[in-house]
Amino acid sequence: MTAPERVYHATSVHGLAELRPSESTHGKWVYAVGDPVLAACFLATTGGDLTCAIGRDRASGLPYLCERFAGAFEHRYSGASGAIYTLDGAPFLAGRTPWEEEFVCDRAVWPLAEVRVDDAAARLLERTAAGELLLVRYPARIDGIPEDDADLIERAVVWSGRFGEGVLDAFASYHPALMARIQEEMLARERQRGAEAGG
């Protein structure tokens, strides 16, 4: 899959003359998506996946925001502002991250247009009211997000192994009730690795 002719990047910073690659869990890239409504979900990143899951609903084809705890939408987006930049899709590559909606570029790019957003929460609620975005309030789920938060536990285990146990602080802050299960899973995998190493 190639990037569309135009892609969109949202950030809390407006007035940028260029967008430069930044380090993340998948490498050093400029990230973009092919849908401006989906891009708007990234106007604020507070808590990332631990506050709101972002994706595209397979049933309706619409972008969604799914709260991972009560009030997560307001926590992440209230008071946030930023900009959505339109970019030339030509230098962007598909298939470099696990999320098929995401396109990446390993060099600086220059915006073709900028839409300034003074209130991220208000913009997302407007898009929801217009039928362009699904806002799924906790405890409801969408698109296979498990009721038991098993995906967050898996993420905690994988990220702590990759980036160190310091990442668990964020999980403890947003999802304290999951910490016992996260620790149990980490211990279980340690035992499994030990058993496999022992042959």
Description of the structure:
- The protein has 199 residues and is α+β, with helices and mostly antiparallel strands.
- It folds into two domains: 6-136, no CATH class; 150-198, no CATH class.
- It has six helices and ten strands, in the order E-E-E-H-E-E-H-E-E-E-E-H-E-H-H-H.
- The protein has helices at 36-40, 72-77, 120-129, 150-163, 168-174, 179-198; strands spanning 6-11, 22-24, 27-33, 52-56, 63-67, 82-88, 93-94, 102-105, 113-117, 134-136.
- The strands form three sheets. It has a four-stranded antiparallel sheet. Strands 1-6-9 form a three-stranded antiparallel sheet.
- Strand 4 (52-56) and strand 5 (63-67) form a beta hairpin.
- Helix 4 (150-163) crosses helix 6.
- It is globular.
- The model has no long low-confidence stretch (mean pLDDT 95).
Describe the structure concisely:
This protein is of the alpha+beta class.
